[in-house]
Design a protein that fits this description.
Alpha-Beta Plaits; 8-stranded antiparallel sheet; 6-stranded antiparallel sheet; 14 helices; globular; binds flavin-adenine dinucleotide
Amino acid sequence: MISGQALQNFGRNVSFRPRTMYQPKSEAEVLSILDSHRGSRIRVIGRLHSYSEAACCEDVLLDVRHLNTVRTEQRDGRVWATIGAGCQVKHALVELERQAGVTLPAVGLITEQSIAGAISTGTHGSGRHSLSHYIAEVRVATYDTESGEPVIRTINAGSELKAARCSLGCLGVIVSVGLWVRPQYCVEEHFRRYEALADVVAAEEMFPLQQFFLIPWRWDFWVQHRREAATSGNWQAMIYQAYFFAVMEVGLHLIVLVLSKLFRSRWATHTFFRRLLPLTVIRHWKVVGKSQDMLVMEHELFRHVEIEVFVKRSKLDNALRVVKELVSYFDGDIKTLSSVTAARMEQLGLLDPTDVATYTHCYPICVRRILPDDTLISMASSDDEDSYSISFNCYAGPSNLRGFNRFSEVLTRTVASLFEARPHWGKICPMDASTVKSVYLHLTEFRRVSTEFDPDARFRNDWVSRLLFVEPSKEA
Ligand SMILES: Cc1cc2nc3c(=O)[nH]c(=O)nc-3n(C[C@H](O)[C@H](O)[C@H](O)COP(=O)(O)OP(=O)(O)OC[C@H]3O[C@@H](n4cnc5c(N)ncnc54)[C@H](O)[C@@H]3O)c2cc1C
């Protein structure tokens, strides 16, 4: 037990001090902690890689990093995996391959997260569902609603499962998850540049796993075409990965750091993206490598903060237009907004001419496709269309984040209102209850399931209570 220790998330934009923190080593220990803290408010952390207040806790905190076993078994000719909640995704990938030559059905851009943390915020990559969608069993430590005793409940069907797949910690302490895993596979990748979004989206048919970047200040698209490959990895992949690491993961980020933290000149930023960045990208070089080597990047190397908004496929084109407009407006590259955007911002109380020239965006804007999730509140939860996530990284130091935070708020609320965009639960998330209610069609069902599991709201923090459980008319 640790008392009064201050904790900070990866981005250092969120900190909190739980009254008491535990690192249980077994499920029995989790139950015993619940037993001795009846009546307390309890939260769980994974690896604190969320930029939102999702993990914040003032009372009793469980860090479940020691619940990290990975077990695979053959069932009906397929491989089933049971993964301890605190197991980091990177550790799960290694163990799955070692034990049974299998891998996860989806991964995000990094693998530092715990598996429970990743699913609890709807973590996703490109061209698949989010990881949450694939979870077929969740075991949760909670209080029995009749006896009040701590118990472990197994959730594997119906609305309960859809809620548990992405629950922001609201159902209780996840102790393990179960899912069908797939044989390890290879991915082929190459870069290409496009002028028109329609051509980028059309290419998904040939390259279903692709992701692309809208390059600020050039406003063209650089696409990482990706698809599963029948061939196995080739030696070129090792050279490609070394190039990618040195030039993109390290070189690009060092330049962005200099531009964001030291130099902070609009002209230099624009010039870098317009003229120099394209020289660093090798186009049309096709390589094939193991799935996780190709799909994962090293975004955790340099500390930063992020926002990410999700729109349906039919709204992507217009949403990217407004993204370009707002990025240019905050930079001062344009001084006036289109009448539609300005009118909506005015209606939302967001139109403020002093925002012009307060924030220069300095990072490629990453766009990824996520197939519809069968969940209640993951960002890609949908009964029909694919979603596209649009993400913005900022490398300014904590003291210079004001411009980015204001940009995040204006962008998120404007695209939520215009395009029903949903911000990522695990990234900076400037939402209010009425916006959440308007963009999540299954919120009422999520509340019903959560309240059935946790009628006294012991597993909620103020942030989830405010966003998910307060009726908008009662917002302060
Ligand atoms: C550099 C970087 C890159 C990223 N890239 C991506 C990406 O490519 N795609 C993407 O979708 N996201 C991405 N993210 C976001 C990240 O995947 C999510 O924020 C994820 O939730 C972090 O996992 P974590 O283990 O750190 O969880 P935490 O941040 O510690 O917790 C997240 C939430 O899960 C809950 N939780 C954690 N464990 C449990 C448990 N055992 N039981 C109940 N609730 C629990 C917490 O209470 C909290 O609400 C990135 C984040 C960073 C910092």
